[in-house]
Amino acid sequence: MISKKYSQVLFMIFMSFGMSVIISGVVTAVNTGVIDGFPERWFNSWMFAFPVALFAAFTMAPIMRPLVNKIASKD
C-alpha cells in the first residue's frame, strides 16, 4: 500500500486522469463526431490533455484550497 501522506497527490493524479479522459472525449466528439477513427483521435487528444490537466491540478490546488476553506461554512 501507499502511505496516507500521499493521498492528496494520488487524488489529484486520479482526478486529472478521469477528467481529462471525459473532457477530451467530449471535445473530440463535438469537434469531429463519433465516426471512423474516433478512438484514435480521442486517445491523441487525451495524451495532450492529461499532462495539462495534471499540471493545472498541481498549480491550482494551492490557490484554490485556501479560497475554498475561506468560503466554506464551518460546521
Your description of this structure?
- The protein is mainly alpha-helical.
- It is built from two helices and no strands.
- The protein has helices at 7-32, 38-71.
- α1 (7-32) crosses α2.
- The radius of gyration is 16 Å and the shape is elongated.
- The termini are far apart.
Task: Compile the SSE list and pairings.
Blueprint: H1 7-32, H2 38-71
Helix pairs in contact: 1-2
The count of strands amounts to: 0
**Percent in helix:** over 70%
| Main beta-sheet annotation | none
Protein structure class = mainly alpha
In terms of per-residue confidence, which ranges show pLDDT below 50 for 5 or more consecutive residues?
none
**Beta-strand content:** under 5%
Instruction: Write the H/E string, N to C.
Output: HH
Number of helices: 2
Please tell me what the overall shape is: elongated
Spatial extent as radius of gyration: 16 Å
> Overall pLDDT, averaged?
94
The N- to C-terminal Cα distance equals 32 Å
